[in-house]
Please model this.
Amino acid sequence: MVRSLPSRARRLAGVAAIVVAAAPLHALAAQSAPATITVPTDVDQLVRTHMAEAQLVGVGAAVLVNGRIAWAHAWGHRDVERSQPFTTHTPMKLASVTKPFVGVLLMQAVRAGRLSLDEDINRYLPFRIVNPHHPTARITLRHLATHTSGITDRLEVFRDSYRWGDASVPDLEAFLRDYFTPGAPLYDRGNFLDALPGTQRDYCNFCAGLAGLIVERALGGRLDVLLSQRVFAPLGMHDSHLPLSDTRLDAPSTHFVVSHGLAVPIPPYRGITYPDGGVYSSVADLSRFFSAMLNDGAFDGARVLDAADAREMQRFQFTTQSHPENFPPSEGNSGIFWRTKRNGALVGHGGNDPGVFVDMLSSPDRRVAVILMTNTSVAPEDMGPVLKIWDALWADATARAQRDTTVPR
Model:
């Protein structure tokens, strides 16, 4: 049994508190020979029990074995009145599971010769970034994507980067320019660690924002359009979208925060640094994306990454000779916006934001994989029921893998 708490809980605590105080009161898409699309009875009952215990309004899950979707299912509701079901095609915010999508576009740009993982990012930006503690150090895209750049999310700026309801969202480039330009409103030496690139790991959302801006400039388009054309459409992800304008999703889920034993609906929101967490998707769509990642960039006849690039994105980047000083090998490793979790036991990515919890994780050999997503966030100390649901899904996936005669890749 593995246990975990949301990695962003510390930084989001203040955000969630503000939200609660202000808040107002089909079958899986076609794929190659799925084993089943029916949730096992024992899993179904366990999920329902622990949903009630944790006050989760909607839950979606999928089990993958040897890179193929075994089943996907959803429980509960997507709306405040509890009248509309949460289905495998209900879009919800993915939070940090957005980052692997940016990683795919990044690797596409590398394949096209428009970017290099190991070039100084100042070559690609319309403004300069210099760590004042180490002004001659080069920061690369590989550093950004492995959270070892020496850039950090200053807490008060991070909390203010959320925009609620219909509030306008500042331009990504303008925001980042203000954060990194000496003398600008958001600049501070505290935006940087006193550490050389590669020597310290510090999970950094603004670094994903920088990578997304660089990808937009390299590929010549907005991230929402690039994702739609280069990832969502090829993989048949019809429920997925990155909302950067007033465009509304079809039947997206409301998001909820549990407070004092009640699931409280919160207003819709967006982040200024949308490449770090802005994508909406469904269980069905995320299953297709994860299958592609587990199959070296291809799913159901469509390829979004060259196989070598998919392997590089998922390759463990930290070696014995070059490992962050504050992140020992016993705690895991990192790919290109891909990471280990649970002290290296699982690989993929997770995401949490107000009203959101998502895990998209596999075994290191990619034989067993699970997606779990809920439109309800709970306090870290109340995660027990959510983790019991995860354990049940993982046990089902493991049992299926043991019965599967497919030779693992």
